[in-house]
TrEMBL record:
It comes from the Bacteria. The lineage of its organism: Bacteria, Pseudomonadati, Pseudomonadota, Alphaproteobacteria, Rhodobacterales. Keywords: DNA-binding, Plasmid, Transcription, Transcription regulation. InterPro entries: GntR_C, TF_FadR/GntR_C, Tscrpt_reg_HTH_GntR, WH-like_DNA-bd_sf, WH_DNA-bd_sf. The keyword Ligase does not apply. This is Transcriptional regulator, GntR family. It comes from Paracoccus denitrificans (strain Pd 1222).
Amino acid sequence: MIRPAGNEPEAPESAATLHDLVVGQLRNILLEGEFAAGRRIPEAELCARFGISRTPLREALKVMAAEGLVTLRPNRGAVVTPIDATAIGPIFELKGALEGLIGTLAALRANDAAMTALEEHHHALGEALSRRDQNAYTRLNYAFHQLLAQATGNPLLAQNYEALQQKIWRYRFAVNEFDERLVTSYQEHEHIMVALRARARLDLAERLQEHNRLTGEAMIRAFAEIAEHNPRSKKEKSA
């Protein structure tokens, strides 16, 4: 699961460990929108924050460039790659197919430990909603769905599902006005849990796919509204 950004990496036991830690922390910072799109990456600031030299940071930046989170500019440093809202639809379409597979497998394979963890996360989601804590809800929602993917007992499925979840993570934190969707999202989670408890695999698969579809549509609408109220976006559209 993605860890909150901001925690300093511990002293590494090897160069490989240092690389993994820096990559993980830098990815968290970028996914959670700590640096605005188009901003130059403050290398000196990050080196001081992580307690490292520029070499491991620049190696991590190459990984982030390969993942599309930063753009490397020769002799001018790296900048945060702007979010491409047109990618939201395709990501959710692909994720929807995986949701269906997760539903059919998790309903059959989720063991007692997995069910307990999912029940606990579902309860915590309800508490986050009652506090109107969007950030907590988003993190718990991420963890809930990853637990459900892991409950399938298929590590390759869980790995690929998490890769798609990480792509969506950055989009979620770029959308601030999402309160109404959180209410309906939790209602959908209630139905998901009913199907899971009943081990109704086809119903669970359908519930997860519908939940995914509605979330994707809400996110697309949110970005469209952002673009509509952004004077720069309007100017680019009319150019």
